[in-house]
Each structure stands twice: as C-alpha cells, then as structure tokens.
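Input chain follows. Return structure tokens only.
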Amino acid sequence: MKAKRFIFNELCNDLQKPDVTILLGARQVGKTFLLKELEAFSAQAGKSTAYFNLEIPSDILKFTGSEQEIFQILITSGDVVLIDEFHYLKNASHLFKAVYDSYPNIKIFASGSSSLEIHKHLKESLAGRRQVRNIFPLTVGEFKENALPLDRILVDGTLPGLLNKNREEDRQSYLRDLLETYILKDIKSLIREENVKAFNHLLFLLAENQGSVVSTAGLAKEIGLTARTIEKYLTILEQTYVCYSLASFSTNLGNELKKSRKYYFYDLGIRNAILKNFEYDLEKRKDKGILYESLVFLNLLPQLSANTSLFFWRTKQKAEVDFIKMVNRKPVPIEVKSGWKQMAVPDGIKIFFDRYTDVQKGYVIFEGQEGELTYKDRSVEFINWKNIDKI
C-alpha cells in the first residue's frame, strides 16, 4: 500500500517555487517514495520530468563527465529534475546554483540520507536558493490517516517500509537488515576501523538509556574512549539523523540542569532492533514508559518550525517534565504517564507552573479517558497516547 504523507502537499507547492527543494532524512523514511510521487504529480501537471537515483550504477554513470556535461544534463532533461541521493554528485550545490541562476524555470528536487557532505553543500553556495524539507518516519496522525493499526508502533516503529509486512518476523527482519546494511554501514565509514566495537557499544548505551539524561563524560567512561571522541560520534549520529538530542530547558535559574542532554533514535523499531527486544506485551517490558515517551518525542519533532523548539526540564531537586515545547518563546509543558488511566495533574507540571507563572497550559499524555483539569487557574489537558497528533 502507498502511505499518504502530510508533507506531500507542501512539496507540491514547492513545485511553483524556483528554489532547489532538498529532502533530508535518515534511510528508509520515504524520500524516494516522495520523489516518485512528485514526478507523477509533475507529469499530471503537464511538465516534463527526469528522475535519477545516484545509488544506481547506470544513473551515476550519466553524471561522471565534466561539470559542463553534467550541467547540460540538468538543463535539458526536463522541467522538473529529481535526484535521489544527490550527495554522490560532485559539486552538486555549485551545479544546482548554476541551474537556479540561469534557468529559473527548471525545478530541482534532490534528496539525501543526511551525509555530512550534504550539510557542507547546504551551508555554501545554495544559501538563499534552497528549501529544506526534513522527512521523518510516519507520525501517529499519518498512521490514522492511512487507517493503520496503532497497537504495534511502540515496538515496530513507523518506517513506511513496514506497511506491507503483516508478519512479525518479516517486520523484525526488515529492521535488522536496515540496521546492519545501512545505518551501521553508512556511519561506520565515518569512523576509524579500530573504534567500530566502541561505536557499537555507544549505540547500545544510547538505545538502552533512551529518554534518560546522559553526559558525554559518563558515556566516555563507560565505553573507554575520550569525551572528545564520544562528542564526535554523537555529532555524526545527529548529522546523519540517526539520533536526535534534547537539551534541558532553563531561563538561568541556578538550580536547573544546563548541560545535560537526552537522546532518541529516529525510530522506535530501529531502537528495539539495536537492543534485540521485540517483546509486544508492553506489560512485560521494563522500558514501557520510555516507549511512550519516545513516541511522543518523535511526533513532536516534525512539528518544529521557525517559531518552535523542544526541550526537557529537570531541576537538581529532581523535579521534571518530559518535554517543554516553546512556541514563540512561550513554554508549554508536556508530561508522559504511560501507566496512568485516571486524570491527575503530575507534580512536575505543578512545580513548573509554580516556577513559571506566565505559563497557562500544559498537557499530559496517558492511557486513559481524555479530559481537562485546572491547577491554580491553569489548564491541563489530558490526551490519550493514540491521539498525540492533537497537540
């Protein structure tokens, strides 16, 4: 089946803009699918199209000539040129800039699996000439839009490639293969061979401690590498969109944590594959709470825009709120309570309200009946985890 993606309408609107549209995201989040759908949409709109996948030898061979020859391919192939895995194209940003400047009627869509080279391209000659679209796995809202069951996403994750795999063993095999073939292969090419074992250890520790506050120094001590090396590996994981970090929220109050971070893998299925844990009975899992918390994070992430950001909050006295969503610099606390079925305002949100008196609303994600409570005239909305797209 083909999944309906919410971002597709935005991409279709980009067709009318001269900017080079860049689709960025981890492996298997649906970038190629979206490019093919854009190709079909463009053709229906009466535009000539050309699609190239630079991981296919026959396509990459077309782009091995001189820069002038490649430029000619780009300007003569069609009104809409779509290039998958464009970071394999030498001087891609320079070529795209030349097309943008000289042939504004030619629209380029390009995707990449978030290699470090892409980030270098985007910072240089494409500045002011690009529109970056981050592509994520399916959200809970997209699962509901496609009438897909929500009961297994806490274990299998939400990668689009799982949609046609109905058997548990097929889904698990897919995730293991993806982990071994792409993630480990891609990332390990960026580290020294003698540190591969240590890097695997880091992946396991991050998966095991997902959603927990970790420090670079603590990870370095556990793994046996320098803090500087650990920081380098964490940067690689983030710049390849395999992991996302979450900083602590603070407005310079002395007793709040400032340097701690949480880490979340981009997909719960990948995280569970690293841990080799596909137990579907959540009551048997010690990490049930982390699964719910991670799902909320992964559904808040695609919502971030120019006026929003995301943090966690914890004080030295151990008061905490799982997520603080900043909207126009105004904080909104969001707490996840996986085992709760009755409404009650969590202590963490109460303390946050008391400390930040201008905050007017908070959310609790839980397993029970939805509703609303007040605490000192502030609203706390309770949302069942299956409806987290309401936030």
